Amino acid sequence: MDLFEELRRRGGITRTRTLRDAGVSEHTIRRAKAEGAVIKPRNGWVALPDADWFALAVVRRGLVISCVSLAERRGLWVPERHQRHVVASPHSSRFSVPEHAVVHWAQPVIPREPDAVEDDLRNALVLVARCQPLETALVIWESALNKDLIDRASMARLDLPAAAREVLDRARPFADSGLETIIIHRLQWLRLPMLAQAWLYGHRVDLLIGKRLVIQLDGATHTGPQRTSDIAHDALLALHGFHALRFSYEQVMDQWEQVQAVITEAVAQGLHLADR
To answer: Residue 93: is its pLDDT beyond 60?
Structure first.
């Protein structure tokens, strides 16, 4: 078994016992250490010199990457990126904390493997539910559901704390981006039917409110042929009696009061109703 191939397969860092169990000889590991081909972040562990710096910092301290940091590393939609969240065993007593990191003490709902550098996603989502505001937690959970990274029924069978149970009960897998989750969550007080990713005249729209009010959300890369296609679809919707409102990422995240005012004015005018 090739030491370096096995290390790369495991993210560049793992326990020496795991390597030996995989068939890498003790002699090979010792020689690689002596030659500087691998480094020792802590007793019983080895890593490639170019391994992820945050993972190395976490392993050196006996911690595990989790919560929003793990969600981001799994490609989920995280509103505030590049945070450093780690988890310690509830029985941990002494360790140093990586710079600017948030440490959680929590019993996992899914047992952690002894050589885990990154937490199980389900454990991380539970921490997200307890650590983050409800809106942010919903964004991340719905992203995981949308990407089929978790199963709702399986999550429901776990012994979830109250905060995680609430997020699971609210989360739906239909939102295609975090912006859709955010805008639905913020407009729930209107008590109107809202359907994410509704199919209208050959295309999906981000959100349909009532029967006729369409909300379209443009990301930072909304340019070129995609924008041209969306403009054409907006015109088609108008010809069929729909009213399309289009907002950018910056408007939703930084100018929500103005966005909400436009939408509520449209509702006040009855533009969401079928007979307008």
So the answer is: no
